[in-house]
Amino acid sequence: MIVKNNSKFMMNKASYMLQMVVLLFVTGCTTTPSKWQDISDEGTFFVYRRQSQIGEETYNITSNKDRITVTSIQGENERGRITGIESKLYLTTDLEPISYESRRITSKDTTNIFKMEVHGDQVSIWEKHFDVVTSNKKDAFFAVNSNIPAGIEMMLYQYYFNHEGITSLSTLPRGEVSLTHKGEDIVQIKGEDVALDRYVVEGINWGGRTIWLDKSKNLVALVKANTQIRELIKKGYEEAKPFFIKGNVEEQMAALKKYTTDLKGEQAKVKALVGGDIVDGLSDQTLKDMTMIIEDGRIKTIGKRTDVEIPENATVIDVKGKTLIPGLWDMHAHSNQVQWAPTYLAGGVTTIRDNGNELEFATAFRDAIAKDGALGPDILLSGMTDGPGVKGNGIIRARSAEEAKEVVDLYHKNGYEQIKIYTSIEPEILKVLAIEAHKVGMTVTGHVPALVDNANKAVEDGMDMLSHYNRILAVLFPDKKISELGSYFMAKNEITEEQINTAIAFYLKHGTVLDPTLGLGVVRTMQEGELMETIEPDAGKMAYELFEGKRFRSGLNATRAEQAKKDIMKSAAVIGKFYKAGIPVVAGTDNFAPGFGLFLELETYTKYGGLTPLQALKTATIVPATAMGRGDETGTLEIGKEADIAILEKNPLENIENLRTVEAVVTNGNYYESEPLWHAADFKAKNDN
Prior knowledge:
- Helix 5 (359-370) links the parallel strand 21 (349-354) and strand 22.
- It contains 19 helices and 29 strands.
- The strands form four sheets. It has a 14-stranded antiparallel β-sheet, with helices on both faces.
- It is globular, with a radius of gyration of 26 Å.
- The chain folds into two domains: 13-177 and 227-238, no CATH class; 327-633, Metal-dependent hydrolases (TIM Barrel, Alpha-Beta Barrel), CATH 3.20.20.
- The chain is an alpha+beta fold.
- Helix 3 runs parallel beside helix 5, helix 4 packs antiparallel against helix 19 and helix 6 packs parallel to helix 7.
């Protein structure tokens, strides 16, 4: 298709040559020898993000009579950010691990550093921000980090199959890796049929990854997520990329089906929520000791418990002492794997806008919930679109007027609500995208592109919604380009009431909806060496495999951390004024963490933005519902509306932090308790130690 980005990956050659060792490539589809003494093998994996090639990994395997040495060098140019990682693994010739180290080689950022050493019967493992963990060596174990290079991961599978009869493999200090064989696939490579074995692997990244091995158990391809989808494909197999993408979607949907089977159970058409307090999302009054009747997924009756007659065929759910609120919206999601489904519901989130994802997965995920009754929040889709060059994001690009029309047609045919603009879109192409989207009833959201002068121009050129507070607040400086403002420009400048009032008038005139992602801004103020719990109190409840990228961040030095905090506080204060002036502000997390990220977002609105708990709650209920054209159907607790409900232990109107007490959720006529949902996705529930 014309809209796809087929340009070859271009690494910054000077940096690459200075920082990396250049390894020879293997041509064709070679396999690693089965005998591990006196061998020499090398190969290449291509690295893709959102199906666009962003880098390469070269690996080298050598051995002598005593040990095997595996070296991997990975270079990426991901949206203009050049990084490199060198990893070394030492094994005995029986494939027993001796040591493993992974380090960055093109940046001072060492977030992903990992070390493992074996000393006799003891294993010591060190990860960035973790203390050294020393434990007894298991009979079968392997060192794993969630960003394990493909060349090292290939040896993990060789080791696994070298231990006949095992069903899982210890990955000290984490847990276990397990492989489930899903069948044999035949792929076409250079016109020939090639048989590969498909497995789902659990215990490396959050959830599972889909891998393909050749008949010698060598890794050929993998598709993984955590918080973004990546494909790694061995050189010689890249023409089968669409097949690998399709296979991963199949396995993801199978996992979602299992969640649904395990957690949904039999659901009565009529439910009575009896004795709870109701926050309807319209006023700051709490209705006490109420009963709500739900029939076929809609609210049929709301009244005093003593006045409402419960139908004989109703399932009665005792919510005495609990508070019912409208189900929450996350308007800046990137739900790249089905584990987001139970975790979102567990946190009371019943609707998300996915703000950029791979089309094949996103549409399958949405449809499984909407059409097949699978467990999960309702999903509205916004289609990622970017312009030319290595700084572009994903494979779907609009580099000409014709491509822009094709992009809109592609997303519209697939039922998308919006076009999501990314930073490399050129000004004239933005106009075409907006015109074409509006013709078919779609709206336009996203980033203010780098080549568009400022937020004012982006809105005037047709953008209906804007993402991220730093780009949104560039409207305060209409005579400056965003690139001229620099980082932390709110902290560095005095903001006058005249600037604020002018910006308010502009956004009100154009009906612009703002998606500021303030909670993520707070996360990014974290100082180096701090744990995420200093900012996000529930961070320790995340699934273990999320720790490296979420709970344990590299952080800022003391000076920059202080500047970042000042910047987010001033930004939130202005966003609060925008909201109070009538500008629609919608809550979104930008993929920080399901549930927790939205709680932090709303807490930021009250703590720094000056919003009341009800106003903050509205940014995640009726305001986004209205912005997405669904305000008549959901967003408040009213008779006739969809029964999208979060059930809390405590009332958030008394303290917005009480949102963290979600105990159950109702969506699409289904009732779920939060604790089993958290546990299903390997999170801790609120009462777990």
